[in-house]
Amino acid sequence: MATESGYYVPESSKLPLIAATGMGLMAYGAASWVVSGSNTVFLIGAVVMFCVMYKWWSTVIDENMQGLANDQLKHSYVLGMLWFIFSEVMFFAAFFGALFYVRAIVNPWLGGDAAFGMFDNTPTDAAVANNVHLWPGYETQWPVMVTPDQAANGDAAQFVGPDQSMSFPGWDRLLQWLPLWNTLVLLSSSFTVHVAHTALKNNNRKKFLQWLGLTVAMGAFFLVLQVEEYVEAYQHMGLTLESGIYGTTFFMLTGFHGAHVTLGTIMLLIAFLRGLKGHFKSDDQFGFEAAAWYWHFVDVVWVGLFIFVYVLA
Amino acid sequence: MAHGPAKGIGRWLFTTNHKDIGTLYLWFSFAMFLLGGFFAMVIRAELFQPGMQLIKPEFFNQMTTMHGLVMVFGAIMPAFVGLANWMIPLMIGAPDMALPRMNNLSFWILPFAFAILTSTLFMEGGGPNFGWTFYAPLSTTYAPESVNYFIFAIHIMGASSIMGSINIIATVMNMRAPGMTYMKMPLFVWTWVITAFLLVAVMPVLAGAVTMMLMDINFGTSFFNAAGGGDPVLFQHVFWFFGHPEVYIIILPAFGVVSQIIPTFSRKPLFGYSSMVYATAAIAFLSFIVWAHHMFTVGMPIAGELYFMYATMLIAVPTGVKVFNWITTMYKGSLTFETPMLFSIAFVILFTFGGFTGLMLSVAAADTQYHDTYFVVAHFHYVMVAGAVFSGTAAIYYWLPKWCGRMYNETMGQVQFWVAFIGFNIAFMPQHFLGLAGMPRRYADYGLQFADWNMVSSIGAFIYGGAQLMLLYNVIVTIRSGAPTSEAKTWEGAEGLEWTVATPAPYHTFSTAPEVK
Amino acid sequence: MLKRAQALFLSLLSLVVSLPLAGSAAAESAARQLNMPQGVTEVSQAAYDIHMIMMWICTVIGVGVFGFMFYVMYAHRKSRGAVAENFHENLTVELLWTIVPTIILIVMAVPATTALMKVYDTQNPDIDIKVTGYQWKWQYEYIGEDVKFMSELSTPLDEVYGRAPKGEHYLREVTQPLVIPVGKKVRFLITGNDVIHSWWVPDFGVKRDAVPGLFTSAWARTDKPGIYVGECTELCGMGHAFMPVVVEVKEEADYNEWLAGKKAEAAEYAQTIGKQWSAEELMVRGEEVYDRSCSGCHQPDGNGIPGVFPALKGSPIALGPPEGHIGVLIHGVPGSSMQSFADQLSEVDIAAVVHYERNAWGNDVGDVVQPVDVLNYKQSQ
Ligand code: HEA
Ligand code: HEA
Ligand code: CUA
Ligand SMILES: [Cu+2]
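The joint structure predicted for all components is written out below.
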């Protein structure tokens, strides 16, 4: 029902309640999955969510095709997407913050060499005592190859550090260094999606589809490389989620990034399929643009990752 | 086009109407307020005397935790989101919220989230028992299994808040009537955009914190375990990066409400409108850089403590600006003291009082003595109960006639105010003394020297709880049989677009945007 | 309407004023304290001073602000015929009430900073004591002296659950207090064994979190002998309210005597390990240890709390070979709240409690577990 101001306020809809049910089932199901190992409820919730999302976005696209969405409504969508991306930035900020805090403060503190200011540097000084009395033998290091647990408890340790890290391996082995390839692939995909965008604006649909398709392929390739990296880490480097704080931060940061790449790739793929069906116009392309912004965001996060997780170690 | 609400229960389940959704939020939050208040009553009943009389210590901890969580996430936040839904489109001349379907989704997530959260109380091992601040490792390695349900409940609650906030931001940025410039927006709208911004910024960080917990509990990571190279204190940094802005998320919309009501009953425009806006923004900004004042006793290096101390003290400046502006608004006005105004005045006094104790807490050397005692409990109930809850109550009395076209009974309103005001102070003033004398918070039992004030405090709490039942009664009686009113402008001194539409507010308003001069 | 409001307000005022008086009539026994204690150390005195400064500044501002507000409420009431003016902006006052509070804050910050410097001045102590928080007791270790012991609540559970009248020192008494000498600078190195606790002695102005895996530090020096009571102030599970801190400050000579006594005790104890204990002796001692250290979780009747703490009655581990049982006590169960008791209980105590658990509440294995068995187990690890 269009209002006189032209802003489309949809009729009541069953979708939100079903979506909330789906989310509730997923949340409850995820918890019982980790608690009791049964994932039935979670899967039911996920299926519900999938159907709702499909239906919901189809509805929005239909409304748009019918011309119900005026410019003002489209601007609401734009705002929605941008602020959503902002919230994602903050999600990553939490994990980057954890990484910085661990590297800059906890690690030297455990290693006993953070004595400054009011401290007196004796073995019973809080700063030094961490190392003398709690974690004897632990040396400040990044990546943490020998955990405090290992240093203090030897073989009885619960947390055993990795044999090898993902850091820069030296110039001679530069080309075997997967993260470098990942970076190249992802950075160029940001470029290709931009080319696609420009092509669409110039109404060059063929070029648009080609470059968008290429972007999707690169996104998928990035994911393949990442899986390869993980397999490598688990099988050959002793680098796992359980191998202390280095493994923890490494997998959590790259893992969440990978999950976002997956999502971004799916969004771009959908845009691609819609493009094939003839959707989007040179001046009306929110669905695609949203995916493209998201893709650029994922890319920027990777740059941060590359610098702080891989290079500066 | 003149389209009424749908019939039957479907109206509420499937609605996309901002007024319906606002109503849903308000009722839901009131229900949660009663639930959280009930938990508080259990706490106060157990603390009535020294010794364990009614419940076991482990259940006491669950009560404390659930009380904090339900009040903060279930009662106060949704209450103000409800007000935002009802009032923002009316105040800025918009036909509805920017994204109406998502609006309904934001609401409906909440019943599921709180159903999951409360169900943990009935699980084997009990519900969350680690405080609403859920410090690791008590909330990870040492937590009951139900913590996993708690984690996912927080996740979807966060999703709800983020979507709700994005909606509010989009509405305010995109849906204002022609002529409604930013600096003409009512202050309630301003405080809400800024709050929404805070929410979008910090809810994801909370999601990050619980995700780290989930990983530490189930997947062997060592974020909060020094053995693996992590640090339990890391949790506190991440939590309070969310948690401190959170307390301003609770209070900023309350500021907004009071900034609407005081001018109305002073019959005089709000004094210092623009400085109010800047002060709100300044508070929001500062709230991001003071988080570690909750951690003065964890053994941070002194440089850190000093920084966080100074930064925290600074918040007194913009907050003071607000207080002074409210009082100057009243100055040389033509004051009347209807129930909303009484609650607003009590808000100003008691909130400021709570602000003063906050300022005392910010002094790190003294916080060594205050930290984790009832002095802190007293501080935050002054700012949150006499702050957020009083202002929420004021808002209900203020806008109820507009919502349902019926006037509440003024005498009953005033009686409720005085019972609430007196009960509140009897309940929480003694907690300052308890804290200073050395009673730690989250204690299921205490030494004999604290017996007297605890008893007084419990009596006050029961009185205050009674006042909430009176509020419920007043609202229901008003809706069902209050004196009908159809004046567009319920209050003589009220200004703003919401007072230009019919009373009760029609189902759809501003289908044609009003012109604001 | 307004008349009534005024009347109500007055009665409220009189109520608030009379409250403290009413309270004091209610109980003469407990000395009631309204304010922060001044305490007996430099740090606690500094905290008290800055607390009072802040309180007075806030009081003065409060009286000014609220006084003005009440005046406005009185003078500019519509019922008195006040007509609203229309001013709503004044840059000068806005600036004034931004700048003046800022200046007040800067003035406050000076003593606040010096006070904090005192708190942090942990350098060059005479004695170092390591304080470790356990669920739900404290361990004190005199670094370099070979003296180490547990300090836990000694109030009987019967008093807590109202089955016995509450004693004078209800929840303020422990098995062994921490002992320190007068006039010496004592540095506390504080850490946690399981979850975060917080070690607080109000009269010392010392409150530091006991974070597992990391140290924090604090210090105290006092000239006043006496017994000072404090609390655990970080939520640490169900026994949070039941792990008080008690510190006894002794004259130096008494302290030295006490320390020597502690060392002799340790030497004496070494002898009892070798001794053969009878089943009856072990049962008696075991029950004591169990009630003190284990019953909080596994419950006095050995039934545990389903879903949280396993029952020991009928437990396969309790009934199986003694090594398994001893092993659980020595190593704890990693990742659960079943901690290692190797540092907390002596060999004798471990043997006794294991023996007790194998033979109590209907468990009847019938064999005898000796302290040497525990010693052998430890050495075999
Ligand atoms: C609505 C919520 C709310 C609000 C608005 C505030 C406001 C403030 N809070 Fe509070 N706080 C909480 C909710 C809130 N707080 C909660 C929930 C906790 C405990 C969390 C937990 O551990 O569970 C807490 C705990 C807490 C602590 C940690 C205590 C501890 O655990 O040891 C501290 C320490 O600095 C603090 C400080 C402050 C300060 C400085 C303000 C300032 O914003 C106050 C500013 C206002 C004024 C100062 C009054 C008005 C000003 C004037 C009239 C101007 C002139 C005045 C002067 C120049 C003095 N708060
Ligand atoms: C905005 C949030 C908010 C609100 C509104 C309240 C409201 C109240 N709170 Fe609290 N509170 C917190 C937020 C809030 N609280 C937080 C965050 C904590 C910290 C938790 C933690 O440590 O982790 C806390 C902790 C806390 C404690 C400390 C517990 C401890 O440390 O162990 C106490 C103790 O007195 C307390 C009391 C109360 C009381 C009496 C009310 C009253 O205002 C409630 C009034 C409402 C009702 C009573 C409901 C209406 C009536 C009924 C449902 C019928 C039954 C009524 C009767 C039998 C009379 N709260
Ligand atoms: Cu230990 Cu609280
Ligand atoms: Cu804070």
